[in-house]
Amino acid sequence: MFKFLWRKLRLAHLRKKNPLPRMYRELSPDLEVNLTAIRRELGASPDLIIRRITVGSAPATTGALLYIDGLIDQQIVHRDIISPLLNGEKGRKGQDSKGLLEYLVRQVLSVGAVKKEPKFEPVVQALLEGKTVLFLDGQAEALLLATEGWEKRAINEPDAERIILGPHEGFTENIRINTALLRRKITNPGLHFEEMKLGRRTRTTVAIAYLKGIVNEKLVAEVRSRLKRVNIDLVLDANYLNEFISDAPFSIFPTVGFTERPDVTAAKLLEGRVAIFVDGTPVVSTVPVLLVESFQSPDDYNFPYYYATFIRWFRYISFVLAVLAPALFVALGSYHQELIPTPLLITIKSATEGTPFPLVVEMVMMGAVFEIIREAGVRLARPVGQTISIVGALVVGEAAVTAGLVGAPTIIVIAITAIATFVVPDLLGPGIILRLFFTILAGVFGAYGILIGLLFILLHLTSLRSFGVPYLSPLVPLSPGDLKDVLIRAPIWAMRTRPRLIGWSQPERQPFGFGSSGTEEGEEGEAEDGG
After folding, report:
1. Is the CA virtual torsion 95, 101, 104, 107 positive or negative?
2. What is the pLDDT of residues 234-292, one digit of tens each?
3. Residue 330 in 3-state DSSP?
4. Is 260 helix (H, G, I), strand (E, B) or coil?
5. Distance (Å, rounded) from C-alpha 108 to C-alpha 83?
6. How far apart are alpha carbons 228 and 250 in whole angstroms?
7. 324-367: per-residue pLDDT in tens?
8. Positive or negative, the Cα torsion across 105, 111, 113, 119?
9. For the stretch 423-439, what's the b/e string if a residue is b when 16 or more beta carbons lie within 10 angstroms of its beta carbon?
10. Which of 217, 238, 395, 430 has a CA between 20 and 30 Å from the CA of residue 228?
11. What is the pTM for the complete model shown?
């Protein structure tokens, strides 16, 4: 007890003798006090570099440069900061200490962005963001110098959104590169970015992007409000925020979109949506999102409209097969055999004769085995994962049929379902859950169970909203003018309006028809509205 009190008294005495600036206090004019505070805050970190320097010659001023090794560009620090301070500043004479910082900013330092900071907390945060901090003895302010230069991944095509035609560049983990890629796509002064720091520990940079004049200002305010309400220790990925700002956090359907492509993000902004960038991840979230967007692909607008419409119908059919094929097979094979043609029924019964499990158990069991093989293939290295996926599926399927555990028709249905699942990757998770849901209902109630499940899912989808926009729009509520990019992909010259419930503030995109008359005037008007 006495030992504890003695340590408390000793600590209070040391703090009174050497008052270190706290996170909420201003910097001290004493250089050593500031450096001691930085060391105490960051600990004995070997990557914290403190370079002591002497500025000027008559009178000379002691200073210190601080930066985190690995987060700064060494060439910028040596060329634009250290060299001018040690060489170009020696000729200064008669400059008073009060105006020294201003003199350095205006005539000595050649680094791009410089900011004066009198508070302790922003100085620590700037160090951790890759900036270099300059302290001078006798000055109660520090200079924050932009020297960020950590290693970055090159711009490559995203693996999850590969296309045949069109641009093959994707976002990276650096938010500045990502915003620059978007600026290249939309060279309009109406493209605005707003940044904020989220995550009490990580202090991750988050930016929202929108097109002024096209976006609904209430949507921007709602996105800004939801993000500011996020109270979490860490933000390491876009999904950390998506689960906080989602309209229906318990729904299996995503109400926040995501993409890794700058061209897709630009197209969504031009429709009146808002994009959310998170530093450290190549995924950009977009709101609001509609269900029909999951069946669209960037290649739809690179191929002729008749071929894009043909392929889009295959996506709808594939998703229906991925969700309902096992359930329909179970319902027909277990309850409604009279609906199957007699030759086909005889073939199915002969193939499943002697199997010990009901059809619903076979479907659930083989579906689980396929998901295990798929997950193993995803987590392993690419060459090994592909081998595991192919060989595992063949061996397990053939062995199960040979051993008489499942019938061959079950393996065929599972294979068709597995292939169809990957046609619509945006709905991969919901598709797997819905497939299991409908299969169990079909095994218990037959076709009536499937109808009950479809009614329940339809009611759920009609009740969903994404930032105030109905999730099934433009089908429910019906908007005939927006159907030109749902079941079909109309020619681009016919897509003259933005989605009615999203881009209503400036609905017209272009004049109708093939000609270019009035295009320049329309672009000028849009630029004026955006600016």
Report:
1. negative
2. 999 899 999 999 999 899 999 999 999 999 999 999 999 999 999 989 999 999 999 99
3. helix
4. coil
5. 10
6. 21
7. 999 999 999 888 888 888 888 888 888 877 788 888 998 998 88
8. negative
9. bbebbeebbbebbbbbb
10. 430
11. 0.83
